[in-house]
Design brief:
- The chain is of the alpha/beta class.
- It is built from 8 helices and 16 strands.
- It folds into 2 domains: 2-237, Purple Acid Phosphatase, chain A, domain 2; 243-359, no CATH class.
- It has helices at 22-46, 65-76, 98-101, 176-181, 256-267, 318-324, 329-337, 345-359, and strands spanning 2-7, 50-54, 82-86, 108-111, 118-122, 127-131, 155-161, 186-190, 196-199, 202-204, 220-226, 231-237, 243-250, 275-285, 305-310, 313-315.
- Strands 4-3-2-1-11-12 form a 6-stranded mixed sheet. Strands 5-6-7-8-10-9 form a 6-stranded mixed sheet, with no helix packed on it. Strands 13, 14, 15 and 16 form a 4-stranded parallel sheet that branches.
- A hairpin with a 4-residue loop joins strand 11 and strand 12.
- Helix 1 (22-46) runs parallel beside helix 2 and helix 6 runs antiparallel to helix 7.
- The chain is elongated, with a radius of gyration of 27 Å.
- The chain starts with a strand and ends in a 7-residue tail after the last helix.
Length: 366
């Protein structure tokens, strides 16, 4: 049996531009590097024959040469493992690619043919790995037509960075039935960040470290043992953190302390090293004044990072508010809106939004 670890979409050097918290981005880049190092440790401890990296090992536009040197130094530790890499759309092999600037360890093989599928042979374990790299950010060519298996007595592995989920994709659309028809003992896929096992013989490893709130599932690598007679595959969790999206419904009787306690109860069992997006919904007392961004200090011992989104609506006493503002724009706005059907959700939303703007009470969350 040939022992393989299949990973990809590591995205070393990734920038987290959607977060105003610079410390968050710095910490997540460290997490990604740490998870990569743990993959190498797993490969070494498991004494795998092959480590497959199915594209997007790093982000070309934001990665630094020091990151690439660290990657190479880690691969050098795998004295009993061959590392095979194909470039993806985030780390394409162009003229200035880091893949061409580093003197890679002798156990590392990078597929540098971007125009057709080539193969690397390992006669000592009766194995051949077929793959192709990217040299552009997008591609839609029919690359599978270049497959030419020259020895079916070997264990044949295919590694591709492409999209099996969307036939109209700009990122090398693939067809599952066509892939299966070639008879590979294992097909290692990259590009889709969610780990997906179509069968023991065809898997997306997913990104080993989740990268945003669209990746809330468990993340890790694929461990595979392959022979001509059998392929066995299992998922191995390895990520340092998970992303969670939690919805908290509040009511007009709750104060700030009640809300904080409710959030703590929801996240306390999920993991204090994880990352949370807390969405507040429901109706809050219009007299309740708070800034959710100031809540972060309350959760230092509960989360590595927490983000708040406020979708609550105020419970206004319209009669009292109209009376207190009958000589200004607020009173006139309420007067006009009360002539409409306030049971209509659209009208009610318009009323709340208008009052929040006029009273400058809407909580802004960053």
């Amino acid at each position: 049996m040939v022992k393989i670890i299949h990973t990809g979409d590591v995205h070393i050097g990734k920038q987290f531009k959607n977060f105003s918290d610079c410390e968050y981005g710095k910490n997540r880049r460290i997490d990604i590097l740490s998870t990569f190092i743990n993959i190498v440790k797993m490969a070494k401890e498991s004494e795998v024959d092959i480590l497959l990296v199915a594209g997007d090992l790093f982000d070309e536009d934001t990665c630094e040469l020091s990151d690439i040197e660290l990657i190479n130094s880690e691969f050098k530790k795998l004295t009993k493992t061959n590392v095979l890499i194909c470039a993806g759309n985030h780390d394409p092999i162009d003229e200035d690619s880091y893949y061409r600037l580093v003197n890679w360890s002798k156990n590392v093989y990078i597929f540098d043919n971007c125009n057709g599928i080539e193969h690397k042979d390992f006669p000592d374990i009766n194995l051949a790995v077929y793959s192709v790299s990217w040299n552009t950010k997008e591609r839609k060519d029919d690359i599978l037509k270049s497959i030419n298996i020259d020895n079916y007595d070997r264990i044949n592995i295919l590694m591709l960075h492409g999209d099996l989920e969307n036939k109209e994709s700009k990122y090398l659309p693939l067809d599952k039935n066509e892939l299966q028809s070639y008879g590979f003992e294992y097909i290692a896929l990259g590009h889709i960040h969610k780990p997906t096992m179509y069968s023991d013989k065809m898997c997306y490893s997913g990104s080993p470290e989740p990268l945003d709130f669209g990746e809330t599932s468990e993340h890790g690598v694929i461990k595979t043992e392959v022979s001509k007679q059998m392929t066995t595959t299992k998922f191995a969790s390895i990520s340092k953190r998970r992303y969670h999206i939690i919805e908290i419904e509040i009511d007009e009787n709750m104060n700030k302390l009640d809300i904080v306690e409710l959030i703590k109860n929801e996240i306390s069992d999920l993991g204090k090293e994880d990352i949370y997006r807390v969405k507040l919904t429901g109706i809050k007392n219009s007299l309740l004044k708070f800034n959710l961004s100031s809540f972060k200090d309350e959760f230092i011992d509960y989360a590595q990072f927490i983000q708040f989104i406020d979708e609550t609506k105020n419970n206004y006493d319209l009669v009292k508010l109209r009376e207190n503002n009958k000589h200004n724009m607020v009173g006139l706005f309420i007067e006009e809106m009360m002539r409409k059907d306030l049971n209509n959700p659209i009208v009610k939303d318009a009323l709340n939004i208008g009052l929040e703007l006029l009273l400058d009470e809407k909580v802004k969350i960053k």
